[in-house]
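User: My collaborator sent over this chain with a note saying "see what the structure looks like." That's all I know about it. Can you take a look?
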Amino acid sequence: MRKIRRGDEVEVISGRNKGQRGKVRINLIDEDKVVVEGVNIVVKHIKRGRARQAGRVEVEAPMPVSKVMLICPSCGAKTRVGVRAGDDGKNARFCKSCDKTIARPTVD
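Assistant: Without extra context I'll predict from the sequence alone. Here is the result:
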């Protein structure tokens, strides 16, 4: 079970983007990385194509999942995440600070 999922609110805990918050857009499970909205912006140089112009484009780059912490929806603090059996018998995530179950994030 993944402790950080797409749609979760996270905060960066180390690196040049320390302290920035955003929602997880993409979870790259094989690479153990996440892409967070508005965080880790890099400049990518794009070659001219048929329908696009050449130039520099700012994009959100993936960052290691170990550099982000989940923001608990109930207590609002950054927290570690635990996993335990839920009411329906499936695994459920919970906040280690306030001990409340973390609901599945709604994805747009």
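A starting point for your reply to your collaborator: The two ends are 21 Å apart (CA to CA).
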